Amino acid sequence: MVYHVSVDNSGRAIAMKLCQEFGSMRLAEIGGIFGIGSESGVTKTISRFSKRLVKEEEIRESYNILCLDLTP
């Protein structure tokens, strides 16, 4: 029997997007930090998260608060 376990990696996706936006990091650098072996994997994760930002108000609010904290 195989069980499907849903894991919420919102925090990880937020961190990756923040690295890209505020850290001006390249995809390969982000992948290295998060243990993702390909740039396409990083792109997919950030892309999925960006779609969630549009759809999910709670995620968007959390992300916006972090962005405000990081903005000088």
The proportion of strand residues reads: under 5%
**Helix and strand element order:** HHHH
Q: Number of helical runs?
A: 4
Q: Can you give the helix content as a percent range?
A: over 70%
How does this structure look, described?
This protein is mainly α. It has one domain (10-70). The protein is built from 4 helices and no strands. Helix 1 crosses helix 3, helix 2 (27-34) crosses helix 3 and helix 3 (39-55) crosses helix 4 (57-70). The longest helix is centred in the middle third of the chain and has 17 residues, at 39-55. It is globular, with a radius of gyration of 13 Å. It starts with 9 loop residues before the first helix and ends with a helix. The model has no long low-confidence stretch (mean pLDDT 89).
Structural key phrases:
72 residues; mainly alpha
How would you summarize the topology of this molecule?
Elements: H1 10-21, H2 27-34, H3 39-55, H4 57-70
Quickly describe the structure.
The chain has 72 residues and is mainly alpha-helical. The chain has helices spanning 10-21, 27-34, 39-55, 57-70. The N and C termini lie far apart (52 Å).
